[in-house]
Amino acid sequence: xxxxxxxxxxxxxxxxxxxxxxxxxxxxxxxxxxxxxxxxxxxxxxxxxxxxxxxxxxxxxxxxxxxxxxxxxxxxxxxxxxxxxxxxxxxxxxxxxxxxxxxxxxxxxxxxxxxxxxxxxxxxxxxxxxxxxxxxxxxxxxxxxxxxxxxxxxxxxxxxxxxxxxxxxxxxxxxxxxxxxxxxxxxxxxxxxxxxxxxxxxxxxxxxxxxxxxxxxxxxxxxxxxxxxxxxxxxxxxxxxxxxxxxxxxxxxxxxxxxxxxxxxxxx
Amino acid sequence: xxxxxxxxxxxxxxxxxxxxxxxxxxxxxxxxxxxxxxxxxxxxxxxxxxxxxxxxxxxxxxxxxxxxxxxxxxxxxxxxxxxxxxxxxxxxxxxxxxxxxxxxxxxxxxxxxxxxxxxxxxxxxxxxxxxxxxxxxxxxxxxxxxxxxxxxxxxxxxxxxxxxxxxxxxxxxxxxxxxxxxxxxxxxxxxxxxxxxxxxxxxxxxxxxxxxxxxxxxxxxxxxxxxxxxxxxxxxxxxxxxxxxxxxxxxxxxxxxxxxxxxxxxxxxxxxxxxxxxxxxxxxxxxxxxxxxxxxxxxxxxxxxxxxxxxxxxxxxxxxxxxxxxxxxxxxxxxx
Lengths: 268, 336
Description:
The structure holds 2 protein chains of 2 kinds. Chain A is mostly helical. Chain A has helices at 2-23, 25-50, 61-95, 98-103, 108-114, 119-122, 124-139, 145-171, 173-176, 182-192, 205-215, 220-230, 235-260. Chain A starts with a helix and ends in an 8-residue tail after the last helix. In chain B, helix 5 (130-143) runs antiparallel to helix 6 (159-171).
Protein backbone atom coordinates (compact mmCIF):
# COMPACT_ATOMS: atom_id res chain seq x y z
CA UNK A 1 0.00 0.00 0.00
CA UNK A 2 2.70 2.42 1.19
CA UNK A 3 5.18 1.23 -1.47
CA UNK A 4 2.46 1.47 -4.12
CA UNK A 5 1.67 5.05 -3.17
CA UNK A 6 5.31 6.16 -3.17
CA UNK A 7 5.81 4.24 -6.40
CA UNK A 8 2.98 6.21 -8.02
CA UNK A 9 4.42 9.50 -6.76
CA UNK A 10 7.80 8.48 -8.19
CA UNK A 11 6.30 7.64 -11.58
CA UNK A 12 4.52 11.01 -11.61
CA UNK A 13 7.78 12.82 -10.76
CA UNK A 14 9.60 10.99 -13.55
CA UNK A 15 6.83 11.69 -16.00
CA UNK A 16 6.84 15.39 -15.14
CA UNK A 17 10.65 15.52 -15.47
CA UNK A 18 10.45 13.85 -18.87
CA UNK A 19 7.77 16.26 -20.13
CA UNK A 20 9.90 19.14 -18.88
CA UNK A 21 13.06 17.75 -20.50
CA UNK A 22 11.33 17.32 -23.84
CA UNK A 23 10.37 20.99 -23.76
CA UNK A 24 14.06 21.87 -23.86
CA UNK A 25 15.29 19.53 -26.59
CA UNK A 26 18.21 21.71 -27.65
CA UNK A 27 19.64 21.75 -24.15
CA UNK A 28 19.34 17.98 -23.94
CA UNK A 29 21.29 17.33 -27.16
CA UNK A 30 24.08 19.78 -26.31
CA UNK A 31 24.47 18.17 -22.87
CA UNK A 32 24.57 14.64 -24.27
CA UNK A 33 27.18 15.54 -26.90
CA UNK A 34 29.27 17.22 -24.18
CA UNK A 35 29.09 14.13 -21.97
CA UNK A 36 30.11 11.79 -24.81
CA UNK A 37 33.12 13.97 -25.66
CA UNK A 38 34.16 13.89 -22.01
CA UNK A 39 33.99 10.08 -21.93
CA UNK A 40 36.03 9.91 -25.15
CA UNK A 41 38.71 12.10 -23.56
CA UNK A 42 38.94 9.86 -20.50
CA UNK A 43 39.32 6.79 -22.69
CA UNK A 44 42.06 8.51 -24.67
CA UNK A 45 43.78 9.43 -21.42
CA UNK A 46 43.77 5.80 -20.31
CA UNK A 47 45.17 4.68 -23.69
CA UNK A 48 48.01 7.20 -23.34
CA UNK A 49 48.89 5.90 -19.88
CA UNK A 50 48.89 2.26 -20.97
CA UNK A 51 51.18 3.10 -23.86
CA UNK A 52 53.83 3.64 -21.14
CA UNK A 53 53.04 0.61 -18.98
CA UNK A 54 51.11 -2.66 -19.14
CA UNK A 55 49.83 -2.62 -15.59
CA UNK A 56 49.01 -0.11 -12.84
CA UNK A 57 49.31 -1.76 -9.42
CA UNK A 58 48.05 -5.01 -10.89
CA UNK A 59 45.27 -3.49 -13.05
CA UNK A 60 45.48 -4.33 -16.75
CA UNK A 61 44.24 -1.86 -19.34
CA UNK A 62 40.88 -3.63 -19.82
CA UNK A 63 40.37 -4.01 -16.10
CA UNK A 64 40.99 -0.30 -15.76
CA UNK A 65 38.54 0.39 -18.59
CA UNK A 66 35.98 -1.76 -16.78
CA UNK A 67 36.60 0.29 -13.63
CA UNK A 68 36.09 3.47 -15.66
CA UNK A 69 32.85 2.11 -17.10
CA UNK A 70 31.65 1.14 -13.62
CA UNK A 71 32.58 4.55 -12.27
CA UNK A 72 30.67 6.22 -15.08
CA UNK A 73 27.70 3.94 -14.40
CA UNK A 74 27.60 4.69 -10.67
CA UNK A 75 28.11 8.44 -11.03
CA UNK A 76 25.62 8.69 -13.91
CA UNK A 77 22.96 6.85 -11.95
CA UNK A 78 23.55 9.13 -8.98
CA UNK A 79 23.48 12.23 -11.18
CA UNK A 80 20.34 11.05 -12.96
CA UNK A 81 18.28 10.45 -9.87
CA UNK A 82 19.79 12.42 -7.03
CA UNK A 83 22.35 15.09 -7.85
CA UNK A 84 20.03 17.86 -9.01
CA UNK A 85 17.70 17.08 -6.09
CA UNK A 86 20.52 17.37 -3.54
CA UNK A 87 21.70 20.51 -5.30
CA UNK A 88 18.24 22.07 -5.03
CA UNK A 89 18.02 21.65 -1.25
CA UNK A 90 20.16 24.71 -0.56
CA UNK A 91 18.13 26.83 -2.96
CA UNK A 92 14.85 25.68 -1.42
CA UNK A 93 16.11 26.53 2.06
CA UNK A 94 17.41 29.95 1.00
CA UNK A 95 14.18 30.95 -0.72
CA UNK A 96 11.85 29.33 1.81
CA UNK A 97 10.31 27.13 -0.88
CA UNK A 98 11.09 24.08 1.20
CA UNK A 99 7.77 25.02 2.85
CA UNK A 100 5.84 23.26 0.11
CA UNK A 101 7.74 20.03 0.64
CA UNK A 102 7.14 20.11 4.39
CA UNK A 103 3.42 20.77 3.95
CA UNK A 104 2.82 17.53 2.06
CA UNK A 105 1.48 14.43 3.80
CA UNK A 106 4.42 12.26 2.72
CA UNK A 107 8.06 11.76 3.65
CA UNK A 108 9.75 15.10 3.04
CA UNK A 109 13.10 13.40 2.46
CA UNK A 110 11.57 11.21 -0.22
CA UNK A 111 9.83 14.11 -1.98
CA UNK A 112 12.99 16.21 -1.88
CA UNK A 113 15.30 13.44 -3.04
CA UNK A 114 13.46 12.16 -6.09
CA UNK A 115 11.49 15.06 -7.52
CA UNK A 116 13.71 15.77 -10.51
CA UNK A 117 15.34 13.36 -12.92
CA UNK A 118 18.29 14.48 -15.02
CA UNK A 119 17.82 12.70 -18.32
CA UNK A 120 21.07 13.98 -19.81
CA UNK A 121 22.98 12.03 -17.18
CA UNK A 122 20.79 9.00 -17.87
CA UNK A 123 22.06 9.06 -21.47
CA UNK A 124 25.48 8.08 -20.07
CA UNK A 125 24.16 4.85 -18.57
CA UNK A 126 24.04 2.84 -21.83
CA UNK A 127 27.45 4.27 -22.78
CA UNK A 128 28.84 3.11 -19.43
CA UNK A 129 27.19 -0.30 -19.72
CA UNK A 130 28.57 -0.70 -23.25
CA UNK A 131 32.06 0.20 -22.07
CA UNK A 132 31.84 -2.36 -19.24
CA UNK A 133 30.64 -5.17 -21.56
CA UNK A 134 33.34 -4.40 -24.12
CA UNK A 135 36.13 -4.20 -21.52
CA UNK A 136 34.99 -7.40 -19.76
CA UNK A 137 34.85 -9.25 -23.07
CA UNK A 138 38.32 -8.05 -24.09
CA UNK A 139 39.69 -9.01 -20.68
CA UNK A 140 38.23 -12.47 -21.28
CA UNK A 141 36.35 -12.77 -17.97
CA UNK A 142 33.63 -15.34 -17.74
CA UNK A 143 30.65 -13.87 -15.97
CA UNK A 144 27.94 -15.98 -14.41
CA UNK A 145 24.37 -14.68 -13.86
CA UNK A 146 25.14 -14.79 -10.12
CA UNK A 147 28.11 -12.51 -10.61
CA UNK A 148 26.04 -10.08 -12.68
CA UNK A 149 23.35 -10.08 -10.02
CA UNK A 150 25.95 -9.33 -7.34
CA UNK A 151 27.41 -6.55 -9.51
CA UNK A 152 23.99 -4.91 -9.86
CA UNK A 153 23.43 -5.19 -6.10
CA UNK A 154 26.79 -3.61 -5.33
CA UNK A 155 26.13 -0.81 -7.81
CA UNK A 156 22.90 -0.23 -5.82
CA UNK A 157 24.92 -0.01 -2.60
CA UNK A 158 27.31 2.47 -4.22
CA UNK A 159 24.57 4.79 -5.49
CA UNK A 160 22.82 4.62 -2.10
CA UNK A 161 26.04 5.48 -0.30
CA UNK A 162 26.73 8.46 -2.56
CA UNK A 163 23.16 9.67 -2.17
CA UNK A 164 23.29 9.45 1.63
CA UNK A 165 26.60 11.32 1.84
CA UNK A 166 25.63 14.10 -0.55
CA UNK A 167 22.14 14.49 0.86
CA UNK A 168 23.55 14.81 4.36
CA UNK A 169 25.90 17.50 3.12
CA UNK A 170 23.03 19.29 1.36
CA UNK A 171 20.97 19.19 4.55
CA UNK A 172 23.53 21.38 6.32
CA UNK A 173 22.21 24.31 4.29
CA UNK A 174 19.52 24.60 6.96
CA UNK A 175 22.27 25.99 9.22
CA UNK A 176 24.52 27.64 6.65
CA UNK A 177 21.66 28.83 4.39
CA UNK A 178 23.90 29.18 1.39
CA UNK A 179 25.52 25.85 0.70
CA UNK A 180 26.87 25.70 -2.79
CA UNK A 181 29.87 23.57 -1.84
CA UNK A 182 27.95 20.53 -3.01
CA UNK A 183 29.25 20.89 -6.55
CA UNK A 184 32.88 20.96 -5.34
CA UNK A 185 32.35 17.98 -3.06
CA UNK A 186 30.87 16.03 -5.95
CA UNK A 187 33.80 17.00 -8.17
CA UNK A 188 36.26 15.64 -5.57
CA UNK A 189 34.28 12.44 -5.19
CA UNK A 190 34.21 11.88 -8.94
CA UNK A 191 37.90 12.68 -9.28
CA UNK A 192 39.16 10.57 -6.38
CA UNK A 193 36.94 7.52 -6.86
CA UNK A 194 37.84 7.11 -10.52
CA UNK A 195 41.18 5.38 -9.89
CA UNK A 196 42.08 1.90 -8.63
CA UNK A 197 42.17 2.06 -4.83
CA UNK A 198 45.57 0.36 -4.79
CA UNK A 199 47.30 3.45 -6.14
CA UNK A 200 46.58 5.24 -2.87
CA UNK A 201 48.12 2.58 -0.69
CA UNK A 202 51.75 3.56 -1.05
CA UNK A 203 53.61 6.07 1.12
CA UNK A 204 51.53 9.04 2.34
CA UNK A 205 48.69 7.92 0.08
CA UNK A 206 47.92 5.37 2.78
CA UNK A 207 46.37 8.08 4.90
CA UNK A 208 44.20 9.15 1.99
CA UNK A 209 43.29 5.52 1.29
CA UNK A 210 42.28 5.01 4.92
CA UNK A 211 40.21 8.20 4.92
CA UNK A 212 38.47 7.40 1.65
CA UNK A 213 37.70 3.83 2.66
CA UNK A 214 36.85 4.12 6.34
CA UNK A 215 35.96 7.76 7.04
CA UNK A 216 34.18 8.95 3.89
CA UNK A 217 34.05 5.67 1.97
CA UNK A 218 33.84 7.08 -1.55
CA UNK A 219 36.78 5.06 -2.85
CA UNK A 220 34.67 1.92 -2.57
CA UNK A 221 31.87 3.03 -4.87
CA UNK A 222 33.63 2.14 -8.14
CA UNK A 223 36.34 -0.20 -6.92
CA UNK A 224 34.16 -2.75 -5.10
CA UNK A 225 31.74 -3.40 -8.01
CA UNK A 226 34.59 -3.48 -10.55
CA UNK A 227 36.46 -5.99 -8.40
CA UNK A 228 33.37 -8.20 -8.27
CA UNK A 229 33.52 -8.76 -12.04
CA UNK A 230 37.04 -8.34 -13.35
CA UNK A 231 39.26 -9.00 -10.33
CA UNK A 232 39.02 -10.81 -7.02
CA UNK A 233 35.69 -11.04 -5.30
CA UNK A 234 36.28 -10.03 -1.71
CA UNK A 235 33.07 -10.48 0.28
CA UNK A 236 34.45 -8.45 3.16
CA UNK A 237 34.45 -5.30 1.05
CA UNK A 238 31.07 -6.12 -0.50
CA UNK A 239 29.60 -6.56 2.99
CA UNK A 240 31.32 -3.43 4.25
CA UNK A 241 29.99 -1.35 1.33
CA UNK A 242 26.45 -2.69 1.93
CA UNK A 243 26.72 -1.96 5.63
CA UNK A 244 28.04 1.56 5.04
CA UNK A 245 25.25 2.25 2.53
CA UNK A 246 22.61 1.24 5.10
CA UNK A 247 24.27 3.08 8.00
CA UNK A 248 24.74 6.28 5.99
CA UNK A 249 21.19 6.12 4.67
CA UNK A 250 19.82 5.88 8.20
CA UNK A 251 22.18 8.61 9.35
CA UNK A 252 21.04 10.90 6.51
CA UNK A 253 17.42 10.44 7.64
CA UNK A 254 18.34 11.24 11.24
CA UNK A 255 20.33 14.32 10.21
CA UNK A 256 17.50 15.51 7.95
CA UNK A 257 14.88 15.11 10.71
CA UNK A 258 17.07 16.97 13.15
CA UNK A 259 17.79 19.73 10.60
CA UNK A 260 14.10 20.24 9.87
CA UNK A 261 13.58 21.34 13.47
CA UNK A 262 15.92 24.23 12.72
CA UNK A 263 14.35 25.22 9.43
CA UNK A 264 13.45 28.89 9.60
CA UNK A 265 11.34 29.20 6.45
CA UNK A 266 12.57 32.35 4.76
CA UNK A 267 9.85 34.96 4.76
CA UNK A 268 7.26 35.23 2.03
CA UNK B 1 -15.43 23.19 19.65
CA UNK B 2 -12.76 25.44 18.16
CA UNK B 3 -10.78 24.11 15.21
CA UNK B 4 -7.81 26.33 15.95
CA UNK B 5 -6.75 27.05 19.52
CA UNK B 6 -3.69 29.14 20.28
CA UNK B 7 -2.43 30.14 23.67
CA UNK B 8 0.69 32.02 24.73
CA UNK B 9 2.27 31.48 21.32
CA UNK B 10 5.77 32.92 21.01
CA UNK B 11 8.48 32.85 18.40
CA UNK B 12 11.82 34.41 19.15
CA UNK B 13 14.53 34.58 16.49
CA UNK B 14 18.19 35.20 16.98
CA UNK B 15 19.20 37.38 14.07
CA UNK B 16 22.70 38.19 12.90
CA UNK B 17 23.16 41.95 12.87
CA UNK B 18 24.94 42.76 9.65
CA UNK B 19 27.39 45.62 9.96
CA UNK B 20 27.62 48.13 7.20
CA UNK B 21 30.27 48.02 4.48
CA UNK B 22 32.98 45.59 3.47
CA UNK B 23 34.96 46.06 6.67
CA UNK B 24 31.86 45.26 8.67
CA UNK B 25 31.39 42.06 6.69
CA UNK B 26 35.02 41.04 7.26
CA UNK B 27 34.68 41.67 11.01
CA UNK B 28 31.48 39.66 11.03
CA UNK B 29 33.42 36.65 9.72
CA UNK B 30 35.20 36.44 13.07
CA UNK B 31 32.76 37.99 15.48
CA UNK B 32 29.07 38.22 14.92
CA UNK B 33 26.63 40.38 16.75
CA UNK B 34 23.21 38.92 17.30
CA UNK B 35 19.99 40.47 18.36
CA UNK B 36 16.82 38.84 19.55
CA UNK B 37 13.63 39.46 17.60
CA UNK B 38 10.30 38.58 19.17
CA UNK B 39 8.35 37.90 15.98
CA UNK B 40 5.33 36.60 17.88
CA UNK B 41 5.02 37.64 21.50
CA UNK B 42 2.47 35.62 23.44
CA UNK B 43 -0.74 35.65 21.41
CA UNK B 44 -3.97 33.79 22.17
CA UNK B 45 -6.98 33.15 19.97
CA UNK B 46 -9.49 30.51 18.97
CA UNK B 47 -11.28 30.00 15.64
CA UNK B 48 -14.55 28.14 15.19
CA UNK B 49 -15.41 25.81 12.27
CA UNK B 50 -16.44 27.65 9.10
CA UNK B 51 -15.21 31.05 10.31
CA UNK B 52 -13.40 33.39 7.92
CA UNK B 53 -11.00 35.47 9.93
CA UNK B 54 -8.89 38.36 8.67
CA UNK B 55 -5.43 38.62 10.14
CA UNK B 56 -4.10 42.15 9.89
CA UNK B 57 -0.93 43.92 10.83
CA UNK B 58 1.80 46.06 9.33
CA UNK B 59 4.85 44.42 7.71
CA UNK B 60 6.85 42.40 10.21
CA UNK B 61 3.98 42.26 12.71
CA UNK B 62 4.18 38.46 13.01
CA UNK B 63 1.27 37.39 10.76
CA UNK B 64 3.22 35.09 8.44
CA UNK B 65 5.24 33.65 11.33
CA UNK B 66 1.97 32.76 13.08
CA UNK B 67 0.60 31.11 9.93
CA UNK B 68 3.82 29.14 9.56
CA UNK B 69 3.55 27.87 13.12
CA UNK B 70 -0.08 26.90 12.54
CA UNK B 71 1.01 24.91 9.51
CA UNK B 72 3.89 23.26 11.35
CA UNK B 73 6.62 24.71 9.16
CA UNK B 74 8.43 26.25 12.10
CA UNK B 75 8.62 25.41 15.78
CA UNK B 76 7.44 27.97 18.34
CA UNK B 77 9.65 29.17 21.16
CA UNK B 78 6.78 28.82 23.63
CA UNK B 79 3.04 28.33 23.76
CA UNK B 80 0.41 25.82 22.73
CA UNK B 81 -1.33 25.35 19.40
CA UNK B 82 -3.97 22.80 18.54
CA UNK B 83 -5.39 22.66 15.04
CA UNK B 84 -8.08 20.03 14.41
CA UNK B 85 -6.79 18.30 17.51
CA UNK B 86 -3.21 18.10 16.21
CA UNK B 87 -0.03 19.85 17.26
CA UNK B 88 1.08 21.26 13.90
CA UNK B 89 4.86 20.98 14.28
CA UNK B 90 4.62 17.25 14.90
CA UNK B 91 3.93 17.23 11.13
CA UNK B 92 1.62 14.23 11.21
CA UNK B 93 0.40 13.12 7.78
CA UNK B 94 -3.17 12.97 9.12
CA UNK B 95 -2.93 16.68 9.92
CA UNK B 96 -1.21 17.68 6.69
CA UNK B 97 -4.01 16.08 4.69
CA UNK B 98 -6.55 18.40 6.29
CA UNK B 99 -5.19 21.85 5.74
CA UNK B 100 -3.60 23.95 3.04
CA UNK B 101 -1.37 27.00 3.09
CA UNK B 102 -1.49 29.34 0.13
CA UNK B 103 1.23 31.94 -0.12
CA UNK B 104 0.77 34.78 -2.57
CA UNK B 105 4.49 35.28 -3.00
CA UNK B 106 5.55 31.68 -3.39
CA UNK B 107 4.99 29.27 -6.17
CA UNK B 108 4.34 25.58 -5.65
CA UNK B 109 3.43 24.53 -9.20
CA UNK B 110 5.99 23.13 -11.63
CA UNK B 111 7.06 26.22 -13.54
CA UNK B 112 7.68 24.65 -16.94
CA UNK B 113 4.68 22.31 -16.95
CA UNK B 114 0.95 22.85 -17.35
CA UNK B 115 -0.88 23.21 -14.02
CA UNK B 116 -2.83 20.04 -14.90
CA UNK B 117 0.38 17.99 -14.39
CA UNK B 118 0.97 19.52 -10.95
CA UNK B 119 -2.66 18.79 -10.04
CA UNK B 120 -2.11 15.12 -10.93
CA UNK B 121 0.97 15.04 -8.73
CA UNK B 122 -1.10 16.43 -5.86
CA UNK B 123 -3.64 13.73 -6.50
CA UNK B 124 -0.96 11.07 -5.93
CA UNK B 125 0.60 12.76 -2.89
CA UNK B 126 -2.73 13.40 -1.16
CA UNK B 127 -4.25 10.12 -2.44
CA UNK B 128 -7.29 11.89 -3.82
CA UNK B 129 -9.95 9.62 -5.22
CA UNK B 130 -10.40 10.09 -9.02
CA UNK B 131 -14.04 11.10 -8.73
CA UNK B 132 -13.35 13.70 -6.03
CA UNK B 133 -10.36 14.96 -8.01
CA UNK B 134 -12.45 15.49 -11.12
CA UNK B 135 -15.28 17.12 -9.15
CA UNK B 136 -13.11 19.60 -7.25
CA UNK B 137 -10.99 20.42 -10.28
CA UNK B 138 -14.09 20.95 -12.39
CA UNK B 139 -15.81 23.07 -9.76
CA UNK B 140 -12.82 25.32 -9.15
CA UNK B 141 -11.71 25.78 -12.75
CA UNK B 142 -15.26 26.85 -13.50
CA UNK B 143 -15.52 29.18 -10.51
CA UNK B 144 -12.23 30.84 -11.40
CA UNK B 145 -12.83 30.72 -15.17
CA UNK B 146 -9.55 29.01 -16.00
CA UNK B 147 -10.75 25.71 -17.50
CA UNK B 148 -9.03 26.50 -20.81
CA UNK B 149 -5.70 27.40 -19.18
CA UNK B 150 -4.89 24.28 -17.19
CA UNK B 151 -3.01 22.74 -20.11
CA UNK B 152 -0.73 25.74 -20.67
CA UNK B 153 2.73 25.80 -19.05
CA UNK B 154 2.55 27.77 -15.81
CA UNK B 155 5.36 30.10 -16.90
CA UNK B 156 3.16 31.34 -19.76
CA UNK B 157 0.30 32.38 -17.44
CA UNK B 158 -0.25 35.86 -16.06
CA UNK B 159 0.26 36.44 -12.34
CA UNK B 160 -3.49 36.40 -11.72
CA UNK B 161 -4.00 33.18 -13.68
CA UNK B 162 -1.10 31.57 -11.88
CA UNK B 163 -2.54 32.52 -8.51
CA UNK B 164 -5.85 30.96 -9.47
CA UNK B 165 -4.02 27.72 -10.34
CA UNK B 166 -2.22 27.88 -7.00
CA UNK B 167 -5.58 28.23 -5.28
CA UNK B 168 -6.96 25.21 -7.12
CA UNK B 169 -3.87 23.18 -6.16
CA UNK B 170 -4.36 24.21 -2.53
CA UNK B 171 -8.01 23.14 -2.50
CA UNK B 172 -7.76 19.89 -4.50
CA UNK B 173 -7.59 17.69 -1.40
CA UNK B 174 -10.62 19.49 0.11
CA UNK B 175 -8.85 20.82 3.21
CA UNK B 176 -10.87 21.68 6.31
CA UNK B 177 -8.65 24.65 7.04
CA UNK B 178 -7.20 27.08 4.55
CA UNK B 179 -4.47 29.47 5.61
CA UNK B 180 -3.97 32.29 3.13
CA UNK B 181 -0.98 34.58 3.19
CA UNK B 182 -1.51 37.60 0.92
CA UNK B 183 -3.42 35.62 -1.73
CA UNK B 184 -4.17 38.66 -3.89
CA UNK B 185 -0.86 40.49 -3.68
CA UNK B 186 0.15 42.16 -6.92
CA UNK B 187 -3.02 41.11 -8.76
CA UNK B 188 -5.19 43.41 -10.86
CA UNK B 189 -8.66 44.36 -9.60
CA UNK B 190 -10.47 41.79 -11.76
CA UNK B 191 -8.32 38.90 -10.61
CA UNK B 192 -8.60 40.06 -6.99
CA UNK B 193 -12.39 40.12 -7.22
CA UNK B 194 -12.42 36.71 -8.91
CA UNK B 195 -10.35 35.13 -6.16
CA UNK B 196 -12.40 36.77 -3.41
CA UNK B 197 -15.66 35.55 -4.95
CA UNK B 198 -14.28 32.06 -5.34
CA UNK B 199 -13.18 31.96 -1.70
CA UNK B 200 -16.55 33.23 -0.49
CA UNK B 201 -18.44 30.80 -2.63
CA UNK B 202 -16.20 27.90 -1.66
CA UNK B 203 -16.60 28.72 2.03
CA UNK B 204 -20.37 28.82 1.68
CA UNK B 205 -20.51 25.45 -0.06
CA UNK B 206 -17.92 23.60 1.97
CA UNK B 207 -17.87 25.28 5.39
CA UNK B 208 -14.09 25.53 5.23
CA UNK B 209 -12.36 27.54 7.97
CA UNK B 210 -10.15 30.33 6.63
CA UNK B 211 -7.52 32.53 8.18
CA UNK B 212 -6.43 35.24 5.79
CA UNK B 213 -3.70 37.86 5.85
CA UNK B 214 -3.87 40.64 3.32
CA UNK B 215 -2.70 44.16 2.73
CA UNK B 216 -5.90 44.87 0.84
CA UNK B 217 -8.72 45.84 3.17
CA UNK B 218 -11.18 45.01 0.38
CA UNK B 219 -10.19 41.35 0.77
CA UNK B 220 -10.94 41.49 4.48
CA UNK B 221 -14.16 43.47 4.07
CA UNK B 222 -15.45 41.14 1.37
CA UNK B 223 -14.62 37.91 3.17
CA UNK B 224 -14.25 38.27 6.90
CA UNK B 225 -16.71 39.03 9.64
CA UNK B 226 -14.00 38.89 12.22
CA UNK B 227 -10.54 40.44 12.32
CA UNK B 228 -7.50 39.96 14.44
CA UNK B 229 -5.00 42.79 14.45
CA UNK B 230 -1.45 42.03 15.46
CA UNK B 231 1.42 44.44 15.84
CA UNK B 232 4.99 43.82 17.01
CA UNK B 233 4.01 40.25 17.76
CA UNK B 234 1.17 41.16 20.13
CA UNK B 235 -2.56 40.90 19.60
CA UNK B 236 -4.02 44.39 19.47
CA UNK B 237 -7.62 43.61 18.61
CA UNK B 238 -9.70 40.50 18.06
CA UNK B 239 -13.36 40.96 17.26
CA UNK B 240 -16.04 41.67 14.65
CA UNK B 241 -14.96 43.85 11.74
CA UNK B 242 -17.73 46.34 12.61
CA UNK B 243 -16.08 46.81 16.02
CA UNK B 244 -13.00 48.22 14.37
CA UNK B 245 -14.96 51.23 13.15
CA UNK B 246 -17.25 51.49 16.17
CA UNK B 247 -14.46 51.43 18.67
CA UNK B 248 -11.61 53.08 16.87
CA UNK B 249 -12.95 55.53 14.30
CA UNK B 250 -12.77 58.97 15.95
CA UNK B 251 -14.62 60.82 13.22
CA UNK B 252 -17.16 60.61 10.39
CA UNK B 253 -16.86 61.82 6.83
CA UNK B 254 -19.63 64.24 5.77
CA UNK B 255 -20.18 64.95 2.06
CA UNK B 256 -22.09 68.09 1.10
CA UNK B 257 -23.36 69.42 -2.21
CA UNK B 258 -24.52 73.06 -2.31
CA UNK B 259 -27.58 74.32 -4.19
CA UNK B 260 -25.95 77.28 -5.93
CA UNK B 261 -22.81 75.36 -6.84
CA UNK B 262 -20.70 77.70 -4.70
CA UNK B 263 -18.96 76.44 -1.60
CA UNK B 264 -19.46 78.93 1.24
CA UNK B 265 -16.57 80.25 3.31
CA UNK B 266 -16.00 79.31 6.91
CA UNK B 267 -16.74 75.56 6.58
CA UNK B 268 -13.53 74.81 8.48
CA UNK B 269 -15.35 75.79 11.65
CA UNK B 270 -17.47 72.64 11.37
CA UNK B 271 -14.64 70.23 10.65
CA UNK B 272 -11.49 69.57 8.59
CA UNK B 273 -11.92 69.91 4.84
CA UNK B 274 -10.57 66.71 3.26
CA UNK B 275 -11.77 67.25 -0.32
CA UNK B 276 -12.75 70.45 -2.10
CA UNK B 277 -14.38 69.88 -5.52
CA UNK B 278 -17.20 72.43 -6.14
CA UNK B 279 -20.11 71.99 -5.85
CA UNK B 280 -19.03 69.13 -3.54
CA UNK B 281 -17.00 69.26 -0.36
CA UNK B 282 -15.98 66.57 2.14
CA UNK B 283 -15.53 67.35 5.80
CA UNK B 284 -14.08 65.25 8.57
CA UNK B 285 -16.15 65.79 11.70
CA UNK B 286 -15.65 64.61 15.22
CA UNK B 287 -17.75 61.48 15.83
CA UNK B 288 -19.23 62.71 19.08
CA UNK B 289 -20.36 66.09 17.81
CA UNK B 290 -21.20 65.20 14.23
CA UNK B 291 -25.00 65.26 14.81
CA UNK B 292 -25.15 68.73 16.32
CA UNK B 293 -22.51 70.24 14.03
CA UNK B 294 -24.14 68.81 10.90
CA UNK B 295 -27.61 70.09 11.81
CA UNK B 296 -26.17 73.53 12.54
CA UNK B 297 -24.45 73.48 9.13
CA UNK B 298 -27.68 72.44 7.38
CA UNK B 299 -29.66 75.19 9.03
CA UNK B 300 -27.12 77.87 8.09
CA UNK B 301 -26.47 76.89 4.43
CA UNK B 302 -28.51 75.84 1.40
CA UNK B 303 -27.42 72.19 0.94
CA UNK B 304 -28.86 70.09 -1.89
CA UNK B 305 -27.31 66.73 -0.94
CA UNK B 306 -25.85 65.40 2.25
CA UNK B 307 -24.29 62.05 3.39
CA UNK B 308 -22.55 60.89 6.57
CA UNK B 309 -20.19 57.92 6.33
CA UNK B 310 -17.64 56.10 8.38
CA UNK B 311 -14.06 56.80 7.31
CA UNK B 312 -12.45 54.18 5.06
CA UNK B 313 -11.55 51.09 7.08
CA UNK B 314 -7.92 51.33 5.91
CA UNK B 315 -7.60 54.64 7.66
CA UNK B 316 -8.90 53.31 10.95
CA UNK B 317 -6.77 50.20 10.76
CA UNK B 318 -3.60 52.14 10.00
CA UNK B 319 -4.40 54.38 12.96
CA UNK B 320 -4.64 51.26 15.15
CA UNK B 321 -1.29 50.07 13.75
CA UNK B 322 0.31 53.41 14.49
CA UNK B 323 -1.12 53.66 17.99
CA UNK B 324 -0.28 50.11 18.93
CA UNK B 325 3.24 50.58 17.60
CA UNK B 326 3.91 53.44 19.96
CA UNK B 327 1.70 52.78 22.91
CA UNK B 328 0.99 49.10 22.91
CA UNK B 329 -0.34 48.93 26.45
CA UNK B 330 -2.90 51.66 25.99
CA UNK B 331 -4.84 50.00 23.21
CA UNK B 332 -7.47 47.68 24.62
CA UNK B 333 -7.86 44.12 23.37
CA UNK B 334 -11.48 43.34 22.66
CA UNK B 335 -12.86 39.95 23.56
CA UNK B 336 -13.64 37.66 20.63
